[in-house]
Amino acid sequence: MKRILSLLLALCLLLPALSCAEDAQETPRRVVYLTFDDGPKKDTPELLALLGELDVPATFFLVGLSVRAFPEYAKMIVDAGHAVGCHSMSHSYSRLKSGTDYVGRDLVRFTDLMRETVGEDFSTDLYRFPGGSSSYASRTKTFVRDQGYAWFDWNVMTGDAQYTFKSDQEMLDYTLSQVRGQDVIILLMHEAKERTRRILPELVAYFRENGYEFRALSTGGEDRAILASCGARMMLPETAGE
Ligand SMILES: [Zn+2]
What we know:
Helices cover about 50% and strands about 15% of the residues. With about 240 residues, the chain is an alpha/beta fold. Helix 8 packs across helix 9.
């Protein structure tokens, strides 16, 4: 009898620990990657100040011609510690669709420009296709990957470049309606969109309240593991040793 009792006691002690371990396995990691395209723009400093206040990292997909127009803002983005990716030199769909030779030259020109602008040690392995990847040939998409770049679309957007909203609330509702319980989110936004800047504090608060952490895109092992469960279209280069 004593033995049975002590067995029961051991079971009672063990069960909560077991269910706890199960919970830990079943709770997926929630991550949101904030991304801003098409900059730098005239109001980049305001956006950087806001991100600083909110204490969140972001990824900026910059356009070469905009970097030329606002070189000091490109440097501010890098100096603030945000991730920077290539969004092409001129955002020209027709040129980028003309062939992989052009795309290859475009990647080199972007990196050269950034090195002249922000410092020789600049490099990036992040890319976003202007307009998103879906309208590009699959050979172009694998070419970018084979040049050593990870390219990313998105699975949630504020719609700031696509739609006109009547109110901030309408944009906020539209954005959050796409979240639908997804655990890993790449959120597409654009620079120089006042409404996006206005709703950003509420978006950040929503994600914080719902257990999301904020990260900048990268091709490091931790982000590869997180991004493996993200529904956005993307292609990552293989890493050495994998
Ligand atoms: Zn763009």
